[in-house]
Amino acid sequence: MSLLSLRDLHVYYGAIRALEGISLDVNAGEIVTMIGANGAGKSTTIRAISGLVRPRQGEITFDGASITNLPPHQIVMRGVSQSPEGRRVFANLTVFENLELGAYTRRDRSGIVGDLERVFALFPRLKERMYQSAGTLSGGEQQMLAIGRALMARPRLLLLDEPSLGLAPFLVQSIFEIIQDINRQGVTILLVEQNANQALRVAHRGYVLETGRVVLADSAANLLRNEEVRRAYLGE
Ligand SMILES: Nc1ncnc2c1ncn2[C@@H]1O[C@H](COP(=O)(O)OP(=O)(O)O)[C@@H](O)[C@H]1O
Ligand SMILES: [Mg+2]
Q1: CA dihedral sign, ordered 185, 186, 187, 189
Q2: Under a CB-based contact definition with an 8 Å cutoff, are residues 51 and 68 in contact?
Q3: Which of 214, 221, 213, 169 lies closest to 195 in space, CA to CA?
Q4: Do the beta carbons of residue 183 and residue 189 sit within 8 Å?
Q5: 221 backbone dihedrals φ, ψ, rounded to 5°
Q6: Where are the domains of the chain?
Q7: Which pLDDT tens digit goes with each residue over 54-66?
Q8: Would the CB of 163 count as within 6 Å of ligand 1?
Q9: d(CA 176, CA 118)
Q10: How far, CA to CA in Å, does 85 sit from each of 57, 77, 222?
Q11: What is the per-residue pLDDT across 83-114, written as a single tens digit (0 to 9) for each?
Q12: 42: Cβ below 6 Å to ligand 1?
């Protein structure tokens, strides 16, 4: 049985149809990537899973139970957290305070301290800048903070929306390595990326979205070899 499953998800923004029946599965332990052009519906899918937009139709199941109509904080408490597109950190709060906020649904103080250490081990820069306000961080550091904050909820499923967007090339490489490290530590990952090449290299499976629909689903290795994918998304 899959950890996360979406069945026939339809999402609208007013009269604008963003998702036209998305179905996908993420199994425990996997990195699954969603690739697709701007406007394909990747972020909307992530927001629907997090409870930030309500589907008009369809079902979202996590760990065997429906989370379709739960409020966002309850979805976090079930074990799903996201690092949103555009690294929305709280600029006026310190790095430490941003990380603490990621753990706001938790009661286990001792576990939180351990996870803080785990985040600092993944992102040593954040430890160096612990008492700096987040607004003074570079773009790459803010991205690390957004991911670190999501990890502080101790998710079983981590949703990453465009983690490499706008980063310097050397940082892009390290973000993808860190994503693999997080996965090896036992966190299942649903990864949205414009950088399809890198995403498919770290993922086990992938889904290709076009205008709110899944048009291809396959192993990441097969998608990397697929002629259409290569032409449309890998710039070949
Ligand atoms: N807040 C919003 N209000 C209205 N339309 C939106 C909003 N967010 C996204 N859309 C529309 O929904 C569709 C899917 O967008 P999005 O999920 O952001 O795609 P992606 O993340 O793949 O670029 C697009 O047509 C986009 O213009
Ligand atoms: Mg997006």
Answers
A1: positive
A2: no
A3: 169
A4: yes
A5: -60, -45
A6: 1-79+183-236
A7: 999 999 999 999 9
A8: no
A9: 17
A10: 24, 21, 27
A11: 988 778 999 999 999 999 999 888 888 889 89
A12: yes
Q: What secondary structure letter does DSSP report for 55? A: -
Which atom of ligand 1 is nearest the CA belonging to 85? Answer: 21
- The single-letter code of the amino acid at 186 is G
Atom of ligand 1 nearest to the CA of 41: 17
The predicted pLDDT at position 162 comes to 94
Assigned token pair, 125: 């820069």
**Which residue ranges of the chain lie beneath pLDDT 50?**
none
Q: Give me the residue label for tokens 């079983």.
A: 156
| Residue whose CA is at the smallest distance from ligand 1 atom 12 | 18
41 Cβ below 6 A of ligand 1: yes
pTM of the model: 0.95
Element of type H or E holding 180 = helix 169-184
Phi, psi of 210 (to 5 degrees): -135, 125
CA distances from 94 to 83, 118, 136 (A): 17, 18, 9
**Can you tell me the distance from the alpha carbon of 167 to that of 165, in angstroms, rounded to the nearest whole number?**
6
Q: What is the pLDDT of residue 10?
A: 98
Predicted pLDDT at 204: 98
Looking at residue 168, its pLDDT comes to 85
Q: Is any ligand 1 atom within 6 A of the Cβ of residue 49? A: no
In the Cβ-directed half-sphere of 99, how many Cα atoms lie within 13 Å? 27
- What does CATH list as the number for 1-79+183-236? 3.40.50.300
Instruction: Match 């310097």 to its residue by tokens.
Output: 168
